[in-house]
Amino acid sequence: MSTLKRFLKDTIIYGVASVLPKVISVLLVKLKTNVFGPGTFSKDVTYYIYAAYLNVLLTYGMETAFFRFFTKEKEKGKVISTSFISLLVTTLLFLILGLSFANSLSVFFGFSSPLFLKILIITIFFDTLVVIPFAYLRVNNRPIRFAFYKVGNVLISAFFVVLFLWIVPKFNINLPTVMTSVFGQTPQVIYVFFAGVIASFITFLLMFPIVLKIKFKFDKLILKKLLNYGLPIMVGGLAYATNENLDKLLLNDYIGESQMGIYSACYKIGVFMALFITAFRMGAEPFFFNHANKKNAKKTYATILTYFSIFGAVFMFVIIAYIKLFAKIVIGSETYYQALNIVPIILLANLMLGIYHNLSIWYKLTDKTKYGMYISVFGAILTIILNIIFIPTYGYFASAWATLFVYTSMTLISYLLGKKHYPVPYQFQKIISYLGTSIILSYISFSYFQANYYISTILLLAFIGIVAFFEMNTIKKMMNESEK
Prior knowledge:
This protein is mainly α. It is about 85% helix and about 0% strand. It has one domain (about 5-480). The longest helix has about 35 residues, at about 220-255. The protein is globular and about 65 Å long.
């Protein structure tokens, strides 16, 4: 089996395991927007924004560091145990301190009830404890178990969300007295958060046998290596969380909860591109490290970026061509449709982010993760500046364009630095040509034929035909190689 074929197989397996849960979560948006008004929906968005920041803080780059040193160190057992013990200790401290000061912290973060924050803290606690077990399954190529736990987690959460928001009200089911007395007059969105903590706890119980297999051997030297590698990634992750989420917090402050909720709902359609990128990364990250020393590694990386860009351009066009259909599937309530014009911008921004992730292999493979941190921090600062300056005048359109500008800038910087430190023969002329064609045809479809699926389909097929015509020989060659 060729390396590219193996890469494709891993991408599909781990991609389904990682993307399917996210797809289910996105599909739940329709239920939430039908039950909640934009103001209440914004509370749901805010909750998960803080969850994103806490996930980055509490894992502090340990997952990526684990991948790096599991393949690099001879004593792999110590890498597993040291990374898990480190996360266990810091997460326990977080749990104790977080719950102890939950009342004052909830006021600081703007939660309407301390119960929101307490549920968030407990959920993040269980989620963090399974980071290394999940990474262990990935690095040992156990995709079936990985998929079972990942998909199971979100299915459990989705079940309880549907139960609390739809089944219980529809059939007038009485919830246990314990729940109603604890939740009291708390907004109904609390049940969404409670569903999450149930799912996280059950997932932890299911994965606990993997934890029991870990032979606890703590190595200070390995921990130092893990932290030196992982902490810059944590800073970069915080910057990434800022790039992805700060606009919503600022929109909430500048133009109100309702407008933020409307923007966030439409932003969810753009997340389909992020799902494609996630699928790619789940297969790509272990692949990049495992093939770093291969003879044709750089050529392989270049080919992967080219076809990532092609598939990403097609995927972007599909969503734009059938934008109203995707809006009905994801959002439902037409109250939120007024922000649909941001979707093409967010799709392109996420595609640029995906290209950036591909280019970032140069600093991961050369152990220069500090550059990734610098680039991400630059992006975060730019995000803050652009949003603060332009939101008061242009509203949520400022946030959408700022996202595109930031990710494009980060991509360009990473490419220029990569040429110096780890040059890869990327086919950027070809990539730019396909992206440019996709953008032009997508613009025509969105601006002039948004309600005409026949014309949009013809334009989409025309683009696919152009790609197939110019890439036919390369595709045949790759298929022949995979059969050898």
